[in-house]
Amino acid sequence: MLNFTPIPYPDELLSNIFSRYHKMSGNISYFHTLEDLFGIKGAIAAIDFPSKLTNFCSHYPELSKYNDEEYFIYEHTIFSIFKPFIPENRASKVINAMKNNEGKAINMSLGIMAAGICKSKSLKVCSSCIEEDKELYGEAYIHRTHQVPGYNVCVKHNQIMSEFFIPYDKSYAKYIHIDEISKSELLVQIDLNCYFKEFYELSKDIEIINTNYLKNSNVLNSYDRYYYMLNKKGYVTPKGRIKRKKLYHDFMIFYPDGFLSILDSKIEEKDEESWVYRIAYRDKQVIHPIRHLLFIKFLFTDIYDFINLEEVKYHPFGNKPWPCLNPVAEHYKENIVEICEITTDSKTGRPVGKFTCNCGFIYSRRGPDSVENDRYRIGNKKQFGHIWEQKLKDLIINKNCSVKKMSRELYCDEKTVVKYANKLGLLDLLKTNIKPYPTKNTECKYHAYLSEPYKDEILKLLKEFPQYSRTQIRKKAEKEYHWLYKYRRNWLESKLLKSSNSESKRMPNSKVNWEERDRKINEKVKIAIDEIKGFKKPMRLTIGLISKIINYSPLREKLDKLPNTKITLETNVESIEDFHIRKMIIIVDDLREKDKKITKSKIIELAGLSRRSEKVNQLIIDTVEL
To answer: Domains of the chain: which residue ranges?
Structure first.
């Protein structure tokens, strides 16, 4: 229980409030102070992002502003400099972690650990601020704005900051009082290496963000502002891609290399995935706020231009409503479409818009739109809709038109006319030799084209090489084997079964040599396991699948009589989780071999891991962060 509740000074670092309490409480042990503050024995004192604030705030009167944890988070920690540059869900996670006893999650959520910049364990003070605070409040205190990484010049006094490196034995054991810092031999002036002007400008921007901390803003708002300005300044191609070389060139001219090096933010022209590139491309990884401020200064020149820019929402196809491009509708080219779903082309990275009109007409195109006429461009017609289909009915039933004339009136090809006439049950009324499109049924689609030739190839091999095993057949005709395994498995199994040796088939009234059978089946199981692992499309290693491949259905029931086979199976058979991990490893190895960027979303998509265990999820995260 607190003997009294310290009243915060303006811009006072929260840990300094704790150190003032310790000094005035008369406690000898810092652990007693921590227990007073948080009501927990063995509490740890984090200087930058303290946790357990709900416990601390409970000491203040209920109606007081000091009873609100978020007051301390926004006004007395450096969280406000991070807030505009992290996703909303991460901001909520950090706030909850600071309120509760979850300190370990904070740095990870803010991306501090991943960013690898400005990691110095120190406290910064301005000697002029110390004297001024003593005159105004009777004592000096540590300012929270001064502790923001990169804040190396006191803007108020135009003075280089001094830095106190926290001894390791004190960093977690106690809060350090400013009197101890100001008299310490460990307090040294920061070496700005001739970059006073650049650090002054950066420190000024830090103060402005801290004061106008954009509490309701998040990284998506920031990215929208960036893209607006990138486009305005000519860094975006008509297809919506960033002109990386031009952006890098101009950025490297804007900032001296030495200045960026001090901030661990230097970029190389050949680096295709630098932090500048990731900011411009709206990367999902958290990027340190100092790098955001550097980018803002480069792009906007004045930080207020960034703050005061009205909320912009980049839309690659312009603002709604969009025109309906149904050529047979009365509202053709009128701006009445309200729905546009945007996805990303997996090959080009360009946005793809799918526009849906109430008349049922759906079309899509790649973006972004670069000129006004792009609004009237169709890439693909996804669905024609009821108005278009009714027009087709009228032409077939009432007009007695040729298919060619119908295609002209409906703005489509003749095969499309036949396809929809078939769908509407009017195919018999058409005078045409054109056959409708085959259905999407796989059996129908592939029967005429692939089934017979592939079967012939397998039969030819079986006749030519009757001694070949299943694996040898597969290697000789890999394409045919995999297609038949997927679409004609029963036929394939029946042919391979007939051609296989009859060694595993027990003759009537003969005594089984289980030791010999175990040896032979074990060899077949090992070959089958290698075969399954070699499939282009990974399949889970199960006893059922292995028994099918070796043509020995009683495998599961006879395992007690097959000890070596049982060991082989127990070593190799996969749980769902094991199978997911193997698929993930295959995808990651493939991406690394092709020198492609490895992201969590890409691994999940390519490996088909939308449903996965916590262990697999954590393994994906660990792999991405390597």
So the answer is: 14-196, 218-308, 501-574, 577-625
